[in-house]
From TrEMBL:
InterPro entries: Inner_membrane_protein, UCP028777, YccF. Pfam families: YccF. It comes from the Bacteria. The lineage of its organism: Bacteria, Bacillati, Cyanobacteriota, Cyanophyceae, Acaryochloridales. Residues 4-54, 69-119 form the Inner membrane component domain. Keywords: Membrane, Transmembrane, Transmembrane helix. The keyword Transmembrane helix applies. This is Tll0814 protein. GO terms for cellular component: plasma membrane. The chain crosses the membrane at residues 7-39, 72-100.
């Protein structure tokens, strides 16, 4: 079921979402300060390509000081916009029964988009 879900996801917007994250990540990597954020954006892009069959996993160092600082900076600059985007599309897709599995993926990506450091989709 996850293979079929991932294929449908890619066709109806998942590919463009993943590419958008990756392009943003490459752009952030052009500056030295933005490299950690760019790498995380590229990882989010890979996660957004095939989200079905995976879950958000917290790393052992998810609550370290540096991770929290990076999450706060990410949240203030881009995290809130990414999270609101995934929330919007998740709510729109949750209106129909067919869209519920795709809404769940958006809600999963919303968590990663809000506070990505110390978390991964596995």
């Amino acid at each position: 079921m996850s293979l079929l879900g991932n294929i449908i996801w890619l066709i109806f917007g998942g590919f463009l979402t993943g590419i958008g994250y990756m392009l943003g990540g490459v752009t952030l990597c052009l500056t030295i300060i933005g490299i950690p954020f760019g790498i995380k954006a590229i990882q989010l892009g890979w996660s957004a390509l095939l989200p079905f069959g995976k879950q958000v996993v917290e790393a052992p160092d998810a609550n370290s000081t540096l991770t929290m600082i990076f999450n706060i900076l990410w949240l203030l600059v881009v995290g809130w916009g990414i999270a609101l985007n995934h929330l919007f599309w998740g709510l729109i897709l949750a209106v129909t029964i067919i869209g519920l599995p795709f809404a769940q993926q958006h809600f999963k990506l919303m968590i990663l988009g809000l506070l990505p450091f110390g978390r991964q989709l596995r």
